[in-house]
């Protein structure tokens, strides 16, 4: 029996537990403290999807980058390191063109808007960022009707999609079709659970047969790729547009990339401008993301391996039970024995071992996000730290 | 055991049965044949919510009206018979002001837009006209996000509303509240089922306590009033804005009235104009509706009584079973024995007795709409007609 | 030397004189009194562009129409007499399809919106209805930027258009072209002055060469045709979409027709619906317009002839000077000698001769609108009436 | 007689000369080369409004800043150095609240949208950034109708504004007032010319008396303040909202500040989000701008003084004529004798003296932008450089 039963797990916890999740997804809220510790390279932080650089670390990385390959500024998103970054992403995704955007919200919204054209209906996951966390931008600014499927689930299947479309088409007098379908993968609100690639392929085929455009909110697509073994290009080939974030695990302070056909992407510069997103110079984000992109696949492969080792090791420690999320990526659930003083343990882990873990959520589980900082200490020393601090 | 179990009945039939319903709601589709029969006053038609006048009948009624009280044209919706009509509706609803609109869709949309102000979220019944039958106008034109509740049900309860709002407020980072709640009553897609008045009062109280504005899509409000015994004014007192149709049972060719506070209604003339709804002269609709309005409550009271008599009488005929919709208004479900040749029976009813009934829906039931034409023949002669034609 | 020097005349009077013009364009304002006089067929009214029927006259015409050819109602704008009317207008304009709309404002706005697609800039006459009298619908609802040309003039020339486009394209960093050009012809605010057909042909050619779509606000196009001798089809051939009003001289209470390519018009039904303009039954307008349409060209040809005769005749009367508007249609300017008591004269004309004329505008001129009512009395009797009443 | 006659000068050159101006305003176009020269502190560049840092210079300044006062990152625009910056701007402008925005376009548009509420009409200068350089965002996204005044002029007067409003109110049937007035000061497209403060005060008073909200596009407000002697607070007191850019002379790579009443600014976070402008971390811009802000008034005071000295000195050199723009700020026009080989002179200035000047515009004048780089060399050495290179 698995620790988490996918569909049930998400269903039973996600909806009632949301207030408790807020610290868990703290970086999307407004209260996170960013560490200024300069000895950052020995720290292990079991939250966030990548390393978060404090300002002077950030600046220092930029200097290292420039030393190898001088950073050239873009001008209003054109040329310089932005041009290099866009080229890199067209190669990674196999799409004709890529364009830098200030935020993932803008990337998602403009993609959906362009793909759906005059049609209003856009199908999304009920738990998706587009539906829950973009402040109703789709309706308020882009005149779209989001149709949420798979309430409380990570994803909808091809057959659920088809059924939903058939139901819609039969129940509205003025039905004029589906403008687009958007899929978030992996799904942040579902603890990073993935949409199975086979399901994606079926959805993609169905959409193409029915002339429905398909967008991928792949903010954390490299995580999906690392845990599923499906390449960025394979994922991208199923979609008309693909958005990838520059700040989840690519180190930047912000920014997003949208990839797609030239006919779609060529409309974006004006769209970015009229929505007020055309920033004069974006090299601080682009240079960092370009630099991290070079090794991201290797780094994440190591994190996947390390996550497996840690899971096995932690489960051998008395009082600890760790399990992956079904179809999961980098988030794992850890349960501690009831008699463990969690506050003390967290405190000691941080002070004595430079290891930070979240507080338990409402379900009592502590969610561990595996990211590149888990490579900063050896498996042995991390396991040792947990063993020491739990037995106190 | 009731013939129809409300919640279950609607749930089980409404969604799968929709294609079959299209003839049933034919007047909303595009193919209805309008009778030109001049002997119309002895015909009984068990469909539509009122009498539908063919052109020369219509013209003749206008002449009768003018003979008693000369019809004065409005000018772009101002003055004349439009002014009289608006005055009548402020009296009926107890609201400060009323304004003529070309369509109910515009009345609903403009009311919701005005009440919700800058907020995007508007809660509606999933089966409501606003959600299913206004071609996504709320999203496409008015930048609103409709949040559907009570899927497959006639209505949501106060407690379901409250729970839905609490869930929304806990699951979105940028939650900024509910702009408005809209209630359709009675609900056309739910076979005219009503929202219980006690539920409306509770919802109204909850909304006022939480500063949420409340709109009534009362296209067929006079039907609800006739079957529930709750007055138009009582219903209206629970809502901030009330829309009532002029062509369901008030005889007009089109048009709608929106009632509410002066502060809301005073914005409407400009809104009507910019959405292209400011028509030069509307007296043909206003004069007819004003005329029918005078007696509508008495007429419908008779229809209610007649519907009860017919139900009792029809149920005494072997092979016929008739039952009201739970919380229903003027639509009743009739089942015929399996051995009845429905086509023949319909044909004979029409030819021999000037009685028209619908074809059976997918569930096999024939929905009978009670309207003022059921007063055109006596109970005895109608029952006689059914008895004769079923036994053939 | 002409009485009115076109460009200068309009320039010098139109802008400063606007408050004075309000009675002149009274039917667009909200205060007009509609006569209920039953002896209407001997009245001559030198205002409006056609005969305005009071309610019982209107009803009586509908009965006459039905007697010859039974009126069949449309259902939500489909079929019946609406279908006949649309067919008639496709023949008249030579366009692929025609569609009924509730108002000219909606027809203009939806046409411009469809033609201009994603582009914002739409070029219009500064004095046009679209720019001045549609309550900023283009900006408020349709996200268009109207670029007004020819301030205070009836029209812009092809060369002015070209210059304006070149200037725009050179002065904006994000210039993305012209979405559409809209031309009103004749121009109501310019006293019915026409755009010369040769200018229209040049503009049309320029637009086609530059892939710019061209819309005609031909609300009063039959007036232009009658006074210029250019057929409706010739005018229409220069434009992508053509709107013609049903209530200026076609007798209806409201309504408009939009003609164009099937690819454009086929989008309109949904657009009408989401803007709240889809009215259940529109036969009262359609039947009247269809009936008047049959003879409109003959009737207006007689009005043109009569207008010439009246102009000549009136100019022979001492104290009266009448002149056509340069490039004008049915509006003529009349100046009376300073010693004439205008109020008395208007009063006597009405009471003794059943002739109504406007009050003088700010410039002192009385604008005479020639319409079919000038055929209700003979030239001799009209001239006699003016002669008698001026000399009192 | 002045070198440039303000109104005539701008009128005669601005419109025809626009293509030639593009290099002049190059930083708004897409082709500018950003220097990577590390010996930047001795360079004098007579273009841009401030010093433009190349990436490694930028990084180095951030390190200096952090050394004095550790830079704390914001989280999605909240807290950290963004909080400090917003506080600083509330003090500078005297407004209740300030908020960081990714771009000036977003700041302008959101301010105008909030101030004008439901009204469509917003009055702007025809030469303003809002009207010409924001890609019709006001119409395409915010449903506003921009009404341009003062074509080809730097500004409109209070009396022109009043006249325009009176004309609008008299010429539209559905006139519903002016939503807001926006003033750009100084005006970039008018070579940095200012709106005289006395005119601003009169406009402000007029707007308050008429309940019309007033926005200041003060992207370069510190330039206006330095050249006019009117403080930021004095300017701000005349307006409801004030936008100030962070990258014209405050060194940042991008970003803007919008100041105003708490009731207006408190709406902005959600607005920024739905338009896709909510970036995760913005400390690179905020820290730089905060640092430069500390001395900006002193630095610009020196630039003003230096500009005067250079003007006097350059005018003493044979073959050079320099003059300020009437009501101008930091842009001066330089004419060279016809026999000067401008290309050679520019080349020598750069190579031998590290002084860069623009190419001549279409009018033949070379526009000199005075900025803090003119303090990098002494007056004597700059004058010497011009003298040497002109006589070659």
Topology overview:
The structure is a homotetramer of 392-residue chains.
Chain A: H1 6-14, H2 18-21, E1 44-45, H3 55-68, H4 80-93, E2 97-101, H5 104-116, E3 121-125, H6 129-132, H7 137-140, E4 145-149, H8 158-171, E5 178-184, H9 197-209, E6 213-217, H10 221-228, H11 232-237, E7 241-245, E8 256-260, H12 262-265, H13 268-274, H14 283-316, E9 320-324, E10 331-336, H15 342-353, E11 355-356, E12 366-369, H16 379-390
Parallel strand pairs in A: 1-11, 3-4, 3-5, 5-6, 6-7
Antiparallel strand pairs in A: 2-8, 7-8, 9-10, 10-12
Helix pairs in contact in A: 3-14, 4-14, 8-9, 10-14, 14-16, 15-16
Tell me what the structure shows.
4 copies of one chain form a homotetramer. With 392 residues, chain A is of the alpha/beta class. In chain A, 44% of the residues lie in helices and 14% in strands. Chain A contains 16 helices and 12 strands. The first copy, chain A, has helices spanning 6-14, 18-21, 55-68, 80-93, 104-116, 129-132, 137-140, 158-171, 197-209, 221-228, 232-237, 262-265, 268-274, 283-316, 342-353, 379-390, and strands spanning 44-45, 97-101, 121-125, 145-149, 178-184, 213-217, 241-245, 256-260, 320-324, 331-336, 355-356, 366-369. Chain A has a 7-stranded mixed beta sheet, with helices on both faces. The first copy, chain A, has a 3-stranded antiparallel beta sheet with strand order 9-10-12. In chain A, helix 14 (283-316) crosses helix 16. The longest helix of chain A is centred in the last third of the chain and has 34 residues, at 283-316. Chain A starts with 5 loop residues before the first helix and ends with a helix. Residues 1-38 of chain A have low confidence and may be disordered. Chains A and D meet through helix 3, helix 5, helix 13 and helix 14 of A and helix 3, helix 5, helix 13 and helix 14 of D.
